[in-house]
Design goal:
This protein has an eight-stranded antiparallel beta barrel, surrounded by five helices. A two-stranded antiparallel ribbon has the order 6-7. The chain has helices spanning 24-33, 95-106, 120-129, 174-184, 194-202, and strands at residues 14-20, 44-53, 59-64, 67-77, 80-90, 93-94, 117-118, 133-147, 150-159, 162-171. By secondary structure, the protein is an alpha+beta fold. The radius of gyration is 18 Å and the shape is elongated.
């Protein structure tokens, strides 16, 4: 089996991810068990905008460095989620893309689009004008690891300034993720994605996060 490499595009991966206030013991075990990883993934920081829709849990939309990326949920196998790219776009963005791809992915009413192209600022104004949508600022500080040939990370995440911690393991091989979950001590911890975590933090969902 080919080695899974961080930062390389491979066939669609499955993912375990959870969010809470502290995964201190699991983080320590993950760091101890990790194989050496490239220096570029030791620590990474990014600022992103997630577009959250009250009508939709299957399309994950985020904007980073002026580029929009939409992933769509494919399936869940043994509690692990698989997502595929649905769309990538840049600002200014065309009316056609907004009509045919972006707003259908949000599953909300289409706004009146009168221009051929829209800037990032104009798009965000349309999002803010829709009561079913929210533009949420997310800052990520991520620490990368590799355990059982799965790509792992622990991240400090600020969701509109509220700090939570995330921990994950992803791979094309489900059994490798399961072994990693067991090895780092995360068995029984809820597997949720960024969409669900953000909805819980901003109050769009009333479920709690994990509290390890």
């Amino acid at each position: 089996m080919a080695e899974l490499k961080i930062g390389e595009i491979s066939k669609p991966r499955f993912e375990f991810r959870s969010f809470g206030q502290c995964f201190c013991k699991a983080h320590q075990r993950m760091a101890r068990l990790s194989a050496p990883v490239p220096e570029k993934v030791w620590e990474r920081q990014s600022d992103e905008i997630y577009i959250i829709s009250a009508k939709n849990d299957i399309n994950n939309t985020k904007i980073r460095d002026g580029k929009m990326d939409i992933k769509t949920f494919v399936q869940s196998v043994d509690g692990l989620e698989q997502w595929n790219p649905l769309m990538k776009g840049e600002f200014p963005i065309s009316r056609e893309v907004l009509e045919k791809e972006v707003f259908p992915a949000f599953m909300v009413e289409m706004p009146a689009l009168t221009k051929d192209t829209y800037t990032y600022e104009e798009f965000i104004e349309m999002v803010k004008a829709n009561p079913d949508l929210a533009a949420v600022r997310v800052h990520k500080q991520r620490f990368g690891y590799m355990v059982n040939n799965t790509i792992c990370e622990v991240g400090n995440v600020l969701i509109n300034g509220a700090k939570v911690v995330t921990i994950n393991s992803e791979s094309t091989e489900i059994e490798d993720i399961k072994k990693t979950i067991k090895d780092v001590g995360l068995e029984g911890v809820e597997n949720i994605n960024y969409l669900q975590a953000i909805k819980r933090v901003i109050g769009m969902s009333d479920k709690p996060l994990a509290n390890e």
